[in-house]
Specification:
Helix content is 35%, strand content 26%. The chain is an alpha+beta fold.
């Protein structure tokens, strides 16, 4: 099974947009579990998608804030 990761750095736009980024992802893809999971790392939050199209849509959705 392939996984597709979208990394969102903790310092995205100096953290101004962090809550908006998370809210957009949850609003569009739902809570973690079905379509993706999320895991914090030292440098970023990793959103790991099960579908490459969802990962691409996520990148497009948050592209203006990351």
């Amino acid at each position: 099974m392939n996984e597709y990761t979208v990394n969102v750095p903790w310092d995205s736009q100096h953290n101004i947009w962090w809550s908006n980024i998370c809210a957009q992802i949850i609003e569009h893809f739902g809570l973690p579990g079905d379509r993706y999971t999320s895991h914090p790392t030292e440098d970023n939050m990793a959103f790991i998608f099960k579908n490459d199209k969802d990962a691409l849509m996520c990148k497009i959705l948050i592209s203006d804030k990351v």
